[in-house]
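Posting this for the archive.
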Amino acid sequence: MNYYSLSEQVKQYSLAFFSAPENQQLPYHNLAHTEGVVKAAVQIGNHYQLDNSDFFVVLTAAWFHDMGYSAEDAVGHEKRGAENAALFLRELGVDELTISRVQACIIATRLPQSPANLPEQIVCDADLFHLGTDEFAERNKLMRRECEKLYKEPLSKEEWRNSSIQLMQSHHYHTEYCKLLLNEKKQENLDKLLRRQQAQGEKAALAPQIEKEEGTGIEPVKKKKELKELIDRPDKGIETMFRVAATNHQRLSDMSDNKAHIMISVNSIIISVIIGLVIRKLDASPNIIVPTLILLTGSLCAIVFAVLATRPKIPNGLFSKAQVDDKTVNLLFFGNFYRMDFSDYYEGMLKVMADREFLYGSLTRDIYSQGKVLGNKYKLLRVSYTIFMYTLIVSIIAFAIATIFFA
């Protein structure tokens, strides 16, 4: 069976179908969505290196899976799409086993999705691929417009947001490829919806108080401004900033430790060579005593500063209730609690998590503390490398002078 030729005929039939005026009325389930699903199916299928037969089944199901949609009826569109696929494939002379597999892939996309094998999983994941991409917000708006058109009644932002949250919370990707590729972004998209839902709930809770104060003339404009700031606060951006800063500091700390390790290793080798080979020959070559002492002393000093750069400093590991109440302790750093009882630490962390200002203050204090430690590390490392550099220069010159003039 020539799957390439069959796939091309399926594609041309689908393009012609969705290009018809009567099939261009839906904002979401149209040619753009179908082509997006096909593209995602190709991407996932290539990852799993499907054979020609499975690839044909997956792509055909992707092209036909939403052909059952119409501007008048959306219920049961999977069944109608599967029937359309069967009719067309029989005209092409495709065997019944392949047709039944295509139909099964289409039916599996019905929510809640129920794929039974890899091709069905791929089609299901391709159908909702956008949930884990940057296109989610725009595609979600189109879906809302389509639902309003299909059911001929407006949907509020809150109603649609709640239904979107329910969909994303109940949905999960089936292939391991999509789980690894899309789950993180999908969670970000869900978190945005949840934050807006929370902000809307806070707005609804504050609305009666604002109306009451408007009736008494107590600064309603100020209250509305505070409410807007509450709704528009950039929590995700702030959390990303802290995560990036912490990651950068950790990477810089690892780099400084590696640099210190290099300095300690190199100078340890130099000292070992001097003690093992050079010192025993000083009686026969007294002219190299001074250069040897210069090299030995410089290497020792470089090691000392490199060790100081990596030597850990541990606080007393205790914090008081007053520090928690005053929000002056950073409970995210182990040095402030490693000697505390778990119950005391747990109580303190509950206060941190319940207080946005305390939480962000702790994160800020943690970033600042990491920066101070890094500054001290790199200062000591600079001294160590400087000593090592000048020691090499001076000792080589000294060895050259001792060899030429005092041999």
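The chain has two domains: 3-194, 236-405. The radius of gyration is 34 Å.
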